[in-house]
Amino acid sequence: MAKVFLEPIGGPRERFLREDEWRERRGALERLNAELRSKREGVRAGWGPKYQARVREKGKLPTWERLDRLRDSDSPILPIGTLVNHAETFGEEGRTSPGAGVVTAFVRVHGRWVVAIANDNAVASGSWWPRTPEKIQRAQEAALRLRLPVVYLVDSSGLFLPEQSRTFPGRTGAGGIFRSNAILSAAGVPQIAGVHGDCIAGGGYMPIISDVVYMTEQAYMVIAGAALVKGGKSQKITSLSIGGPDVHVHGSRCADHRVPDDDVLVDRVRAEVAKLPSPAWDYYRYGAEPAPPLYPPEELDGLFPADHRMGYDMRQVLARIVDHSLFWEVLPGAGPEMICGVGRVGGLYAGFVANHPLLTDDPVHRGAKRPGGILYREGIAKVSQFSRACNDDGIPIVWLQDISGFDIGPEAERQGLLGYGSSLIYTNSTNDVPMFTVLLRKASGAGYYALAGLPYLPVLQLATPLTRLAVMEGKTLAIGAFNARLDDNFHVVAATPEEAAEIRRGMETVEARIQREMDPVLAASRMDVDEIVCPGELRLWIESAIAMAYQSIGYRRVKNPRIWSLHDIAALAG
Asked: Most exposed: 101, 391, 540, 561, by fewest CB within 10 Å?
């Protein structure tokens, strides 16, 4: 009978990192973490105290307080898309839309993870901005992939009309939300909606397909608000009179229950979630109990060198993520620049694929070393086989990226890296198992794609304040862009000193622009990553993600560990 043997990994920080170096790294990252926390707080504040006060004057709870009441007291709020639209302005007045005016987050309710989607009523009365529909659909996609219940807390005055051309049409326009509602319903994913106030046009459609709909006494759902009806039909009415609970709970039956206020509504929504099946975690732990890593996850805030060119021991990172710091590494002798293996997180099995960004032995040139963080033939083949086996066995995969790209040059081409890379891309494109990607530092070139970057549909892609997401570094890209003006040694070729100086200025401008565009906050604002997290928070996020992957049953294959394909690979490798 095959059995999973997990072995100790990593060690105490003091054994591999000097105290002064540890303090330097931690200090540099803490400055970035502090900036990140400040940006998070800014999003949570919405448009500021004045708008929070307006919400309270209407007898309603601000959106974040609704989420606090929705979640279990011991549950974190794990938001996704916090920095969407960060630093962007819209309309002639140059308005901001913190978080795109909507909060999407994972929270536990009566011990079950749910996806919460809540309009931010302190940002233009919950209006939909450019990227608001896309952000909502991204959360709905995660719920569909993991079969997690969805809770909608609706309080939206509809599209921010000055920017309707960027919100209404297109594949990810507002209509995509309602399509996702329907797809979730068809897949049997529970959807529960609470309507707290304004629910106009698209906001009115969003809750309708839900299984249960609650309305407060001041809530209304309308295809068109009173102002538009007055203009079109010259009728003197209010939105509440044409679409309030009197109409939709007792007349149209578009809603199920009416409640007096926000507090009661959220409590009733919680009660609905409590009726759902309990999570399957204990079943899939196979007798194990959740346990923290042997080494503190908070130490991850000081393990990464700020200089992306410096390496570190990825096994020490894994030792601060997996339970008991125990890990089964698969095929450790092949492609040592890549680490593949299995550990428990929260008592549940997870597969890990990680770059090992230290120098490793060159298998071709005896005695030589080659840099880690690059994909070579053996490592690509190992990762492909491991990814296929995890998919076959039903083991969720966590990808820890610190990748510079694929190996290049004549030898790489002779070895057929294009073919091996295509095999890996095919594997990750066709996997059904939940995959979660973390961009630790570098996420460059085709290596970013091959290791399950966002185009390959991981359920969740996280970045850190150290992440640099781009095809290549700024200096390298500048050389490529000006290649026709350089000689074989990359020296500027020019007829005059003035022309040479102009070329150098152009290269410096390109390099500076690329460096700015590699900022993870910019990536988050454009939805190129789902969330930026502090490295010390990674254990919490990964533990939560793996729990979500095992919460529901019957929608994907999960083999018992005795019959994993991974055992066959390990046996054949000797």
From this structure: 540
